[in-house]
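Please go through this chain and its backbone structure tokens and walk me through the local backbone shapes. Keep your notes short.
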Amino acid sequence: MKLQLFGQREERLRLEKQQSYLETVRLFEQAISDTYHAILLYEIPDQQAAVLAPLGYGTRDEALRQMNSTLKACRVQERHYALYASRDENNLLGALTLDAMSEAQSRFNDWLAAVTGSSPNDEVRTLRRALGAALGRFRGELTEFENQAHQLLSMPPDGDQAD
């Protein structure tokens, strides 16, 4: 009976860990998508942005609020993920995805300040390229996290390994 209860507990924890991985990936993907959405709205002329707003694109302010909300949710999810992950798995998320997300957010803020200020066009273009590169690294790190998470989740639970 105790062995059965232990097995059920381990399976429940494994399922919760799997859900935590999935939610982490979903939120981080959403953060990338929300960032690109905000970039789109700031790269087009004001008049075009105003035309797109009622068509489901929202306003620039709404896009920024959504992006920031998703980034906050990513940080909360990271703490939730840490409850189920081993130390090595926590290091995987921290070393890869969180650092890349922070860099992309910093590059976005630099670019946004330039695009909404009176910065010269060449400076805006340079910052936009840096932002694109940071988002590319973020996506690459997230893909690596997904691959490693998939590998970890596909391993049999302790005690179920064949000798």
The CA atoms of residues 54 and 146 lie 35 Å apart. The radius of gyration is 20 Å.
